[in-house]
Specification:
Blueprint: H1 3-17, H2 22-38, H3 48-52, E1 69-76, E2 86-93, E3 99-103, E4 112-115, E5 124-127, H4 131-159, H5 163-169
Antiparallel strand pairs: 1-2, 2-3, 4-5
Biased composition (Basic and acidic residues): 149-159
Pfam families: Rpr2
Region (Disordered): 113-170
Length: 170
């Protein structure tokens, strides 16, 4: 083991082990974060993004949900009308109040494949369903359901007897 990886492990473990002693844990957390910025990034041991979710960016306090931070899902409205709202995971440090958002779902680009042949003038496109076509399908499905319900109601009306017909059957 190299001296850098040993020091990184020692600082990481010590910041976790003395959690009950808040000032000491905070001190080890700051030292560990400073070590990562200077020496630790050169080592291949841990990814810096992994540590960014475990420590507060502002005060370098160790994140432990319920003890040192609160974690919530925040829903944000989308600018477009037919788009889904965006969700973010937020870590709020209970020591300094710093709020750090993380995207839960990344937006995926639409898939478009174009095949152009010199012999054929037509272009074949394959694309994912957009929100407009999805809403149109829903409307068609609803209209088909409404038509089915109306047909069922008319059939029930035909089956039901009027008072005159009912009296004639007796």
């Amino acid at each position: 083991m190299s001296a850098q990886s040993t020091t990184a492990k020692l600082l990481y473990n010590s910041s976790h082990s003395v959690l009950n002693l808040q000032p000491l844990s905070h001190k080890y957390g700051r030292k560990f974060h400073a070590f990562l910025e200077t020496e630790g990034l050169k080592t291949e041991q841990k990814d810096p993004d992994e540590f960014s979710t475990k420590y507060c960016k502002h005060c370098h306090n160790l994140f432990i949900p319920g003890l040192t931070c609160s974690i919530r899902i925040v829903y944000k409205k989308s600018a477009e009308r037919n788009r889904k709202r965006k969700r973010e995971l937020t870590h709020e440090c209970l020591n300094c109040g710093f709020i750090r958002p993380y995207a839960i779902l990344q937006e995926q680009p639409k898939l478009e494949i174009e095949d152009e042949d010199d012999d054929e003038p037509k272009q074949h496109k394959l694309s994912l369903l957009s929100s407009k076509t999805g809403s149109m399908k829903k409307k068609k499905k609803l209209s088909n359901l409404e038509e089915m319900l109306q047909a069922k109601r008319q059939a029930e009306r035909k089956k039901s007897l009027s008072l005159k017909e009912f009296m004639q059957n007796f």
